[in-house]
Write a structure and sequence with these properties.
CATH superfamily of the largest domain: Alpha-D-phosphohexomutase, C-terminal domain
CATH architecture of the largest domain: 2-Layer Sandwich
Helix content: 25-40%
Low-confidence stretches: 282-313
Strand content: 25-35%
CATH class of the largest domain: Alpha Beta
Oligomer: single chain
Radius of gyration: 22 Å
Mean pLDDT: 81
Distance between the termini: 40 Å
Length: 326
């Protein structure tokens, strides 16, 4: 499955209302949303939803066919990013094209200021990081919520997103933990393949675990219910089932009202992991063999990061908890 987006992105700095007004007034066929993490900004996007609307329904435009519609609307966003920068002369404005297919993503784009391109990146699986750093110097992390389908699914009840990492552990063991706790609970749906695991509490939240390699699992997910009770339940489900493991998971409500990060990874190591692209290969290009490993319950002890801080790697605690369950 593919997902292609064209994005105009600007950082909010005392210009929020004017930015949103200009975008909604001049770009009728794009989605305009405010976001709050990893920085406060506004994004205007054309995505695959455009392809679902027949070109004949665009009454105010004269499109010859579907290809003409897509080409003109997508280039309208690209061209308008330059025009918008002339009205907001102090702002750096980014245009980013993201193309994902079969689990592999690439991006390209540019940054403009006062009508002039000041940076351009021809493409790569991490190009968006370099572009976004030009408009927000403290930007970090490969994952960016506005580039996901869920960010534009608020009418379908999506309230927020989840992103994180688990290192030095295997997907089957994670599945075993969640299955033993929730497998017989009718409120939950659990599905697993060789390289993916989905744990869903229907209408409340969904966790998606993806094997990147033998030492790294990516955690993604969706929040459907923003009540305090559900947020606590969601956090507890992660912390209980990853007890004793090396991980970090962040929960974000898209309206900016809630953000929380939990886990055991040291700050610097967690930052390093979050910078890595997990969409650099298609699923069918990845070596998803589950070779027998040493007994994970024996992989105990402690490690030390570059600053000399010790952190726990007590997987024995994970298995002690797992097999105490009835």
């Amino acid at each position: 499955m593919s997902y292609i987006t064209y994005n105009l992105i600007a950082k909010v700095e005392n210009n929020r209302d004017a930015l949103i007004e200009a975008l909604t007034k001049n770009l009728r066929y794009q989605y305009v949303h405010e976001f709050f993490t990893p920085f406060h900004g506004v994004v205007c996007q054309t995505n695959d939803n455009l392809r679902e609307v027949p070109f004949t329904q665009f009454k105010q435009e004269q499109f010859n066919n579907e290809a003409d519609k897509i080409y003109k609307v997508e280039n309208q966003l690209r061209d308008y990013s330059i025009e918008l920068s002339k009205s907001f002369t102090d702002a750096e404005i980014a245009f980013i094209h993201v193309d994902c297919f079969g689990g592999k993503c690439s991006s390209n784009g540019f940054v403009v200021k006062n009508g002039q391109k000041i940076y351009e990146n021809d493409g790569g699986h991490s190009a968006h990081m370099d572009i976004l750093k030009k408009i927000s110097a403290d930007y970090s992390g490969w994952h960016f919520h506005p580039f996901t389908r869920n960010f534009y699914s608020r009418k379908a009840g999506v309230k927020g997103g989840i992103v994180g990492d688990i290192v030095n552990f295997t997907l089957p063991a994670i599945w075993m933990s969640f299955d033993m706790e929730f497998g017989k609970n009718p409120s939950y749906h659990i599905a697993v393949t060789k390289n993916e695991l989905v744990v869903e509490k229907m209408n409340f939240f969904e966790f998606y675990f993806m094997k990147i390699d033998d030492q790294w699992l990516k955690v993604l997910g969706t929040i459907f219910d923003d009540s305090a009770e559900n947020l606590a339940d969601m956090e507890n489900a992660i912390s209980e089932n990853l007890l004793g493991l090396e991980y970090q998971v962040q929960f974000d409500l898209f309206d900016g009202s809630f953000q929380k990060k939990i886990g055991t990874l040291p700050l610097e190591f967690g930052f390093e992991v979050s910078q890595q692209s997990y969409r650099y290969k298609a699923f069918n290009e990845r070596p998803f063999q589950f070779h027998p490993t040493e007994n994970n319950s024996q992989q105990t002890g402690s490690k030390q990061d570059e600053n000399g801080e010790k952190f726990s790697n007590n997987k024995k605690g994970f298995f002690n908890r797992l097999f105490r369950r009835k």
